[in-house]
């Protein structure tokens, strides 16, 4: 019998949701019995071989590259779960939404306290183009489920994934909500 495939990706965020996934500790062995881990920064697999059953995405979209990655991820996941505050709302990276992108870049590279004299805003074509603001995932693609938290606890991720694997729509108990 084929095991369900699970993939993960990280966009604009801190990677804390992936760290929480790793924090399920010895249950990782149980998880590997239940799923095949496909494309993920955890195994450094870069491309999809086929459509996966469940995709977990953390982080919001702050660049054109993030949008491209998220759209490709959506295309390759039957069920897509936005994991954590950055994926759900833009999180901490979206603090820059309060000012214009130009002001943000000028503060970082030409006017702020950490700029280098004569500093210029990077304009290398190899750098991803920043968007006008940071977007939560659901504003870019269809999201099937939302797992809140900053980051969600290991127990919340375990509960959520095992509920999905059992064919149920997860209803996260309030005791598993975590905002640190």
Automatic annotation (TrEMBL):
Is Mitochondrion among the key words of this record?
no
Q: Which residues form the NADH:ubiquinone oxidoreductase-like 20kDa subunit domain?
A: 14-163
Q: Can you tell which superkingdom this protein's organism belongs to?
A: Bacteria
Q: Which UniProt keywords apply?
A: Oxidoreductase
- InterPro entries with a match to the protein in the record: Hydrogenase_assoc-protein, NADH_UbQ_OxRdtase-like_20kDa, NiFe_Hase_small_N_sf
Molecular function terms from GO: iron-sulfur cluster binding; oxidoreductase activity
Give a yes or no for keyword Oxidoreductase in this entry: yes
Q: PANTHER family given for it?
A: COENZYME F420-REDUCING HYDROGENASE, GAMMA SUBUNIT, HYDROGENASE SMALL SUBUNIT
Q: In its UniProt entry, what is this protein called?
A: NADH:ubiquinone oxidoreductase-like 20kDa subunit domain-containing protein
Source organism (scientific name): Telmatocola sphagniphila
Its organism's taxonomic lineage begins at: Bacteria, Pseudomonadati, Planctomycetota, Planctomycetia, Gemmatales
């Amino acid at each position: 019998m084929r095991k369900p495939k699970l993939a993960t990706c990280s966009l604009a965020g801190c990677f804390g949701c992936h760290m929480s996934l790793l924090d399920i500790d010895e249950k990782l062995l149980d998880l590997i019995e239940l799923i095949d881990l496909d494309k993920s920064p955890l195994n450094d697999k870069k491309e999809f071989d086929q459509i996966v059953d469940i995709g977990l995405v953390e982080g919001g979209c702050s660049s054109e590259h993030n949008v491209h990655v998220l759209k490709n991820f959506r295309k390759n996941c039957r069920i897509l779960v936005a994991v954590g505050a950055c994926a759900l709302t833009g999180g901490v990276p979206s603090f820059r939404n309060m000012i214009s992108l130009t002001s943000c870049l000028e503060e970082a590279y030409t006017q702020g306290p950490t700029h280098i004299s004569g500093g210029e805003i990077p304009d290398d074509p190899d750098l991803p183009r920043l968007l006008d603001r940071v977007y939560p995932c659901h504003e870019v693609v269809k999201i099937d489920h939302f797992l809140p938290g900053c980051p969600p606890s290991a127990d919340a991720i375990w509960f959520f994934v095992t509920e999905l694997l059992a064919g149920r729509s997860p209803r996260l108990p309030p005791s598993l909500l975590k905002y640190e």
